[in-house]
Amino acid sequence: MLGQGKITEVVDRVVNLRDMLAVAAPEQHSSIVLRMVQSTIAKALGHDSAHHMDTTRHLEEFGIDSLTPVLVRNHLATMTDLTLPSNIALLHPNLQSLSEFLLFQLRDEIDSDSSSAPGGSATPKATTSGVSSDIQFNNVAKRNTASFDCPKTAFVIGPTGFVGAFMVREFLERGIIVYCLVRASSDIQAEERMLTNIKQYILWNPNYEPLLKTVVGDLSQPLLGLGEGLFDDLAN
Q1: Residues 6+ positions from 140 with CB-CB distance below 8 Å
Q2: Cα 164 from Cα 159, distance rounded (Å)
Q3: Euclidean distance between CA atoms 223 and 157, whole angstroms
Q4: Partners of 166 in beta bridges
Q5: What is the SS3 assignment for 145?
Q6: DSSP code, position 133
Q7: Which of 120, 160, 190, 221 gives 20 to 30 Å between its CA and that of 198?
Q8: How would DSSP label each residue in 103-131?
Q9: Is Phosphoprotein one of the keywords (predicted)?
């Protein structure tokens, strides 16, 4: 069994959570993942220790800035080998919720790997051959997937910041047309600011060009500093 001392020892170096869970008792999985998440958040915030961090406290109360979520995502992705969104730290209310999500994803990945491995015992396909004829399935509502379609356009405020650059890139990578609100004196300057910001983080791909649209405006002004007509067009 993986003892308490072992859990504390590994939090100060990059580890593979899958390997740890593989050798630990199932009842220890939750505490192992939670301590890893605690350590990751503490390091991203510059804290010397993670022990004082309340696992039920709202994450925003720890003083997370625009850079922290990306740092947290990168470290958690390294530890888990999972593909995680850049704002993973903002999608969950507290450390407990975040760790439970990661543990669920890890177990799902591990189970998938086990069932697809040579000699693995995949779950048999369910059939209705042995079900009583009294039970009917034709009245079961089918899941409506129309509402889960990927959006065609997105409007991003604050795209010239660190997080904004990664957010815009995520949309562009999915083929979504992105309208970016940029404070500038002209359309040309707005486009230059946007491209400079994305390129400095090595996120630019020439294929993104037809999808990236810049809009000159100001978040502090009424209607975002846009004319009423343009504002209505974007809103619609």
Answers
A1: none
A2: 4
A3: 13
A4: none
A5: coil
A6: T
A7: 221
A8: HHHHHHHHHHHHHHSTT--PPPPP-STTS
A9: yes
Q: Which residues are within 8 A (CB) of 29 and not within 5 positions of it... i.e. 6 or more apart?
A: 21, 103, 107
pLDDT of amino acid 114: 59
What are the DSSP E strand ranges found in the chain?
A: 153-157, 177-182, 212-216
Q: What is the 3-state secondary structure (H, E, C) of 42-71?
A: HHHCCCCCCCCCCCCCEHHHHCCCCCHHHH
In the chain, the amino acid numbered 129 is: S
Residue 155 bridge partners (DSSP): 179
Going from N- to C-terminal start, the domains of the chain cover 17-113, 153-235
For the stretch 10-28, pLDDT in tens is 344 446 788 778 877 788 8
pLDDT computed for residue 184 by the predictor: 92
Q: So what's the pLDDT on residue 196?
A: 92
- Residue 130's pLDDT is what? 52
- Cα(210)–Cα(212) distance, rounded to whole angstroms? 6
Quick one: CA dihedral 8, 9, 15, 17, positive or negative?
Answer: negative
Please, what are the averages of pLDDT over each run of 10 residues along the chain (236 residues)?
Answer: 40 63 83 85 77 82 77 86 85 89 86 59 49 54 52 87 83 91 93 91 88 91 87 83
Question: Residues 59, 89: contact at Cβ < 8 Å?
Answer: yes
Say which DSSP state 141 is in: P
Answer for the pair 68, 47: CB distance below 8 angstroms, yes or no.
no
In the prediction, which pLDDT does 19 show?
79
